[in-house]
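User: Here's a protein and a ligand (adenosine-5'-diphosphate). What would the complex look like?
Assistant: Let me lay out the input and then the predicted complex.
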Amino acid sequence: FVLIAGSANLDFVVRASHVPAPGETVLGRELHTFPGGKGANQAIACARAGGAATRMLLALGEDAYAEPIERSLRDAGVELLIRRSREHATGTAFICVSDEGENAITVAPGANATLRGEDLPELNEVSHLLLQLESPLDAVEAWARRARAAGVRVVLNAAPAQALPASLLDCVDLLIVNEGELAAITGIADDCDAALARVGVANVVVTLGARGCRARIDGEYLQQPAFTVQALDTTAAGDTFCGTLVAALAAGTAFADALRRACAASALACTRLGAQTSVPAHNEVQALLHT
Ligand code: ADP
């Protein structure tokens, strides 16, 4: 099965005429709460894609914010390994969205910051471990090292963007990044193929928004155009891409086909509002792939 270790948050979203400047108070409209966090979003995408059983290691507080997060993951069919923190609240994100679609986001990682290297469970029967950078970097590196040593395929979505130590990249079989993250890792912003070759990981995928994605797989370049959709909200498009790609690879799908499937699922996610609520089901992706 696929194991995801990473973040889960409850997102508090308020729309307002504009994002407040420092010191300013803005009266917004209704409060909406959505389960989010890159780890949880990707776990849901992986489970909805079908083809591989999905488990997630996550940390939550002992508070009311944990409940909707757990429910969303369980409803999608994700099996949960929860580290419960007494001292820290469940992770939260406070998001103000302006009428122009600009946003300002403050994340309180809370319990997510308490995950440790030793929290990773037994890796028997795990084919792929999917990681992001919303967990402590030393824990991410410890998980990647242990999985690599156990023969598990290590997939890292290096988001949010930051420079990464070679000691972490050395344990990664597949790196998934967007253009900004690729530039943060390689220092190359203007030459995609040069950046893909510079990374030093055998398999790298860069997502290109409405242009689809490009990959360097064992030295060979692959290109997959995006599916044309009416984009409404691109939140969690990248997470949908990651979870769908890993589910397809875990099911034995060839790389080029898995990229096509990931682009189809993430395009559908762009047509719907929200994060986890916008992740499409397997049959919807099938329908788009066969149009
Ligand atoms: P992130 O949101 O992590 O920055 P991208 O913007 O690169 O990631 O989007 C991830 C994937 O979502 C892309 O590879 C593409 O397949 C899909 N996608 C994003 N925006 C669009 C769009 N406007 N139309 C169709 N597909 C899109």
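Summary: The mean pLDDT is 95.
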